[in-house]
Amino acid sequence: MTVQDYENWTSALRRHPQLTHTLLFLNKILTRLIYVLYPLLLVYLALQRDSRLLRVLLVPAVSFVLLSLFRSYVNAPRPYEALEIQPLIHKSTKGHSFPSRHVFSVAAIAWAYGYIVPWAGIVLTVLAVLMAYIRVLGGVHFPRDVIAGLLVGELSGIIGFVLV
Fold first, then answer.
1. First to last CA, the chain
2. Cβ contacts of residue 83 below 8 Å, gap of 6+?
3. DSSP string, 3-71
4. Which of 21, 36, 78, 118 has the most CB atoms around it within 10 Å of its CB?
């Protein structure tokens, strides 16, 4: 991604402030939705005394910790640090851009839901792709960051819910 790429991708949003507000709203609401849905799934499984609870808890949690450690080690700069751009999503965070933990989390939680309710996993996977798009347009991640986050989330789901 170059400065010119980012300017081209966001020019319509910048010309129409309502579109920027929609992007910011979607970023906020999707993040909150996912972080509410996951505990709700855990509570539901606990109340049902469902034997799948431990797997649904551990697969995303362990993957999240491992991804966070890797991300801290890599400590890749964010687009607004590496390029001279004004991001649409304002953050003060430095580094820790690769891979995207937001996108990873949605993808991993999508697998957890898919393990219990397959159609919900599909819907959440679509939301993971939407989150990836939002994070790049928002200027807080490079495309490689969100692609890596999505792939690692999918891989952790496949390993944790299919192969093991």
1. 37
2. 1, 2, 3, 6
3. HHHHHHHHHHHHH-HHHHHHHHHHHHHHHHHHHHHHHHHHHHHHHTT-TTHHHHHHHHHHHHHHHHHHH
4. 78
pLDDT, tens digit, 9 for 90 and up, residues 71-123: 999 999 999 999 989 999 998 889 999 999 999 999 999 999 999 999 999 99
Here the tokens at position 39 are: 């505990």
What are the counts of helices (DSSP H) followed by strands (DSSP E) for the chain? 7, 0
Query: CA–CA separation, 141 vs 5, rounded Å?
Result: 13
Going by C-beta distance under 8 Å and a sequence separation of 6 or more, which residues neighbour residue 26? 130, 134
Q: Report how far Cα 28 is from the mean position of its chain's Cα atoms.
A: 12
Q: Which residues contact 3 (CB under 8 A, 6 or more apart)?
A: 83, 84, 85
The total number of residues shown for the chain amounts to: 164
Residue 47: both structure tokens together: 């109340």
Q: Three-state SS for 158?
A: helix
